[in-house]
Amino acid sequence: MTDTIISPNQAYTVEFSSYEVRMSHWINQPYLIRVADKQTLFSLAGDGWSAFTTKWVDEATVEMEVARYPGRVSCTLRLNAAAGTGTAAGPTGSFSGTLTDVQRWVLSL
Questions:
Q1: What's the farthest any 2 CA atoms get from each other in the chain?
Q2: Source organism's superkingdom (predicted)?
Q3: pLDDT tier, 2 (very low <50, low <70, confident <90, very high otherwise)
Q4: Of the N and C termini of the chain, which has fewer Cβ atoms inside 10 Å?
């Protein structure tokens, strides 16, 4: 996976910390970052969550398909960096809230 995916207006990036957990099994942990001050707005670090698809749908909204290794739990994220809000849809339903609340909800799956 690419190391950085830049928003259309170049105000935000999604960066990845990638590491191999087993031969040919990689974790690509996503970080949503505001470029102006390098502030991390959203992260799934530390719990084996990996992004499989990442795309910007507008100037400040990114969609990601993520799963926790070894792949038994997954969800779809839609994060609006400008508004500081997001949604997650996973195996136990869906959740909407602040980026921090969405991060907490995903990490609790």
A1: 39
A2: Bacteria
A3: low
A4: N
Q: Count up the domains in the chain and report the number.
A: 1
User: Residue 70, exposed/middle/buried by CB under 10 A (0-12, 13-18, 19+)?
Assistant: exposed
Range of the domain at 46: 4-107
Strand positions, DSSP E, the chain: 4-6, 12-22, 25-34, 39-43, 49-56, 61-68, 73-80, 85-90, 93-98
Residue 62: name the closest of 91, 86, 35, 36 by CA: 86
The separation between the first and the last C-alpha atoms of the chain, rounded to the nearest angstrom, is 24
CA nearest to 88, candidates 62, 69, 59 = 62
